[in-house]
Structures are given as structure tokens and as C-alpha cells.
Predict the structure.
Amino acid sequence: MSDNLLSNINNPTDLRLLDEAQLPQVAQELRNFIINIVAVKEGHLGASLGVIELTIALHYVFDTPNDLLIWDVGHQAYGHKILTGRRENFHTNRQLGGISGFPKRSESIYDAFGVGHSSTSISAALGMAIASNLKGEFNKQHIAVIGDASIASGMAFEGLNHAGVTDANLLVILNDNAIGIDPSVGALKQYLTAVKEGKNPRQNNMIKSLNFDYSGPIDGHDLFAVIKELRRLQKVKGPKFLHIITTKGKGLQQAEDDQVKYHAPGKFDALTGEIHLKSEENLPPKYQDVFGLTILDLAKKNEKIIGITPAMPSGSSLKFMMDAYPKRAFDVGIAEQHAVTLAAGMATQGMVVYCNIYSTFLQRAYDQIIHDVAIQNLPVIFCLDRAGLVGEDGATHHGVFDLAYLRCIPNMIIYAPLNEIALQNILYTAQLGLDHPIAIRYPRGRGVISNWHAEHFGNYKKIEIGKSSCIKEGSRVAVLSNGTIGNNVTLALAKIRNEETIAHYDFSFVKPLDEKHLHTIFSKFSTVITIEDGVIKGGFGSAILEFANQYNYTSQIKTLGIPDVFIEQGNVAELQEYCKIDVKSLEILFSSY
């Protein structure tokens, strides 16, 4: 038998056969295993390194999968996956056809609940615990592991509020490391800091006041102490709350020192921890940086400009403005609903508010968009980063539903820029004054104009709302694209022999549509193809079909986009190929006309 203990652990039953004194060795091996794989294959690093001891203790003490364990968000669940039968294929993590980067019910019986977005674990675990009571399974354990950034979200408090008046056998474990992706913010963070430092009187414990049996804080890296406390809590009935203190990135010095960068560092040297730097010379900018640099530049000239992001200052690049104008740029924590209504409140007072939320996370504030913004016709500027296919994070993170769920809302303007110049220009146009709220969607990753910053940054041009443009003339087929996916169309058309037969139009505005231009197009072309990097059902193509039906046009219409399935993980190029909106697939399609 190998001296390596981890190589002999195929499930938690194997783990429980070990002597408790052997577990620190397992912890070290598990850390090394994650570091070695993520260094080469990439992924989320710091969060999983921070909960190695907790992960081992949970599976050692509790009877998983019969006892139900839920990881909030799931960034920290790599160790859990490796201990529950996925060690041998962990190298496929976040890859096309591989295992998901997040817990997923269809992947393993040990993944009690699918996650990816924050603050769902307490509600889900409580639901399971109440169901267990109704089934007479009174000894079954239900554990929710949630971070200090996630527990500040409203949904987590809704779960705590309900759990406190039940007799549910629920254990909430607060993994307190003072950081989500960026450092935690807000009054709750200050409260938890006071608790950790012993500055909060024990009688003032807010968790106890919600009828939880509270214990802690304890050192989450003291494996034996965590096991001892979990065993005690195993025998306590009703809602329980364990507060543990951990360090994100524990065991890799660079990851401990720079927790933001090592949340998902890309490729790095497993021995030294040094990140393999990629040359950015002559590369186009990231769309998030086009936003960040542009809003900062505009804010210098317009004192009414406000920036808001729910817990994504680095990812959205709003951090540029936060550093320069801290009183006018706000990280509100993981609180999308609050972010939208906060923006609405500011807009009533004449502020020009840019509310930057990842497309997939704006789904969490849908009622606020309708009720607090659109009904009142407040000109909030929604900047939807990570729109379209985002790649390796998979189904929980693709921003493919926004066109469909926003297009049906009265008063909304919806715009998707073709490139960096269009993005900076719509950001400029929005702050000149709009009569309606606007959603500006743009993708993760880099643009297409390598000299944008040197040649175009700051050279603003007002965009006419609802106006489309002709990129290329043609005689037989009209291709109507929305957003950056139009660049795939341009590349494909450049490769075909019959390119003179195909016209290409940029319909950046999904709402309002350029109906005048559409009448011209449908009068001229017998075949119209629409393409978008959002869901086909209800999206841009649907809008074109509705227009054609309304005016009795008989042109053949083909809609391209994201099919009616949840798209799993893979890189963006692979996923575009799957959806047949990559350059090669378009080249083949266009060549057939």
C-alpha cells in the first residue's frame, strides 16, 4: 500500500477508516493535490485551500452522503470532490466533458445540492431538514457551509430567520475568512471582526438572538479542534451555528498574501506559487477594463456619475473609480437586489448611476428591475458584464438569458456593443441623459481592437438610440447580428467565396429595434439570418420573427444562438462550436447560400 494516504481514499468511508492522527497528513496531501492540478489546469484555488481541514473533518465525522452537506457557492468544494470519488478525474475539472467546477447533483450523490450563485445553502439545507423531520428521519444531519461574504446576502438572512423558529436539525458553519472574491464589506463584516477579536460582548451575539445554538469562533485549521466540535454538535438537536476562522489560500504563501489574485490565478508554478505571466503586448483590452477606464474618465467630467457593484469591484473593473472617487463608487457586497434599488433611489435624485452586475447575477434582482426601475422609468444604466457564454464556470454562470428576460420589460433600452469603441460610446451616450433605463451587455474576456486605448479611448461619439448599421452590403442573404458575436460573422464572411451575396447588419439595439431599417431589409432579402450569444427563445432572433409576423413578411428567417438547453462548462470557443455560432460553423452555413 502506498505511503500516500490520499491515493487510497476513494470515498469518505475510506477516510473514516483512518486513525484521527493520520488526518493532518491527508490534509497536506489534499492541499498539494489541488495545488498541483490547478497550477496546470487552472480553476478556483484560494477558497478550496482555505477549507481543507474543515472538508476532512466534515466527511470524517458525518455520515455523508446520508447526512447532507451543502457548500454555498461551491468555489471551496474541490477538496470535497476529491474525497468523494472524483480524484482520478479531477484533472478534467471545468473542462468540456469533464467534471463541473461546482457541486452538482447529477455528478455525485455526495453533492446534495447544486450551487454556483451565493447564499442559497441555508435555505436549501433547511428545506431538506424540514423534509427529513416530516419523513421521521430525526437523526439525519443537514450541514450548510457558508462564507462571511455570502452570509451578508439577504437570502441567507431569510434562511436564518426561518430556521430559528423551527426544530430542524440544521448546522450552519460560517467559514469566516473576511473575503469573497474581493474583501468582504459592510457592517456585518465589522461585527464578525469584533467577534473574532473578542471585542463584542458575548451577550450581544446576533446569531444566538435568532435561536441558534452558537459556538465559536474556533480555528478552522486546527483539524482536531474542528473534529471535536463537530462531534459535540452532532448530538445537539435543532438549529446550530458554528463560527470558524480560516485563511483563504492556506498552505500556499502567495495565495495567502494576495487572496484576490489567487482566487482564480490561472496557470502558476506549483512549487514556487509564481503565476505564469502572459504578455499583454499588442492584445486588445478586456471589456471590463473598457468599462472601468471609461466610467472613470467620464466621472472626472461629470460629478453626478455614481458606480455600484455587488461584490465584483475587481471583476467589473469598477475598482478604478472606487480608488479615485471612493465616495461615488460603491461595493455593496453580495446584494444584487439592494444594488438595483439603491441605484433607483439615487436616480430619483438626479444621479447618473452605472449599476454593474454580471449578467447571470442580475437574474437575482429581476423584480427590482421591473418594480423599482422600469415601472418608474428611472434612467438607471445597467452594465451587464460576462454576458453570453462565459466558458469554464458552466451553466450557473453563462449570461445567456438577459436579452430574453429584459426584452419583455416596458421602458427598457437594450444594447450590445459590437466592439470596444461601441462600448465606450454607449457609456458616454448614457450619461448625456436618457429617457429610459438601459441595459448594456458585453462579454467576458478581450475585445478585438488592439490599439483601442492608444487610438480611441476618450474619443467619444454620441450613439443614436435604436439605430442599426450596415457593416457589409450583399445581394441575397441578410445576416443580422447583435453584439460582439458579430465579429464572428465578419471573420466567417472573409473566408467564403460567395461573400458578395451576403449582407451583414449590426443590430446593437435589441430594444428599440430599428424598424425602419428592418422594413428595408425584409423588402430586399428573401433570406434573413439572426445571430446572438443569448438564448434563441425570447431573444434577439425572436424579436425579428415578431417583427416579420407583425408586418406579414414572408422571408425565410433562420435564428442562431444558444439552444434550449443549459450549456455546461468548456472554453468559449468550444461552446460556440457546440452552439454553431463559431466562425467555422458560420463559414459553412454562409457558403451554402
The two ends are 64 Å apart (CA to CA). The chain has a mean pLDDT of 95.
